[in-house]
Amino acid sequence: MRSFVGANWKMNGSGVEGLAYLERLKDSDVESEPVDVVLFAPFTLLPVLAEDAREAGISLGAQDLYWQDRGAFTGEISTSMLLEAGCSWVIVGHSERRNLFGEDDELVRLKLIAALRAGLRAVLCVGELLEEREAGRTEEVVKGQVLRALEGLEEADPDRVVLAYEPVWAIGTGRNATPDEAARMHGLIRSWLSDMIGEMGAKDTRIIYGGSVNPENAPDLMTREGIDGALVGGASLGASSFLQIIRSCCHHHEH
Ligand code: PEP
Description:
By secondary structure, the chain is of the alpha/beta class. The protein has a single domain, classed as Aldolase class I (TIM Barrel). It has 11 helices and 8 strands. It has an 8-stranded parallel β-barrel, surrounded by 5 helices. The termini are close together. The structure holds phosphoenolpyruvate (PEP). The site of phosphoenolpyruvate (PEP) has 13 residues, from strand 8.
């Protein structure tokens, strides 16, 4: 299985910075690494970066989408617009969308279905809040998110969907889940997937970790059984730290 590493820039970056960043990835020959690298850039940068991303051998993704294809939805963006902008991946259900902008599981599912039907690939994010963890509800919350997004969804094959386990208390806080705890949650997520889509599909689905991944903690996290890559926010903004994280994931692959 190829590892997957995503850079989630959130509401950061500019065209000039983005082009310089891609130049660095190209010079570092990221293309030859046995890992799928996707840059999730702000919408307006997608067409600006498309050609250089292709030359650097990485894919472009969007951070969100809307599930309707056109119409009176001021401020929203559709799958066909994303495809035209040169992107092939999209994040669905990021915790910032869920918690700051009120997206519920039903909307996340509609977005996931729209993305997959349009031929985009998707990173589906799940993860518990700190208060949910402290109340001992982590497993129930994450299982609910996984099931409500994916149950009965025929389009959700391992080629097209990556799951990201991102405990919300670990995102942008500098506080990451211990590799043991992350690996335990990944194992559980894979077992729920197995119940839904069968053992083979679950085995082939990449489950990546997100939450304050950086060049220091990545080697330990990425060598754990069942952790197939990373979704990186803060530490993906600089090309050199992101490159170091990519390399940690490659070593995992060689084992
Ligand atoms: C994220 O945005 O998905 C994320 C994991 O952010 P950070 O790496 O900054 O915690």
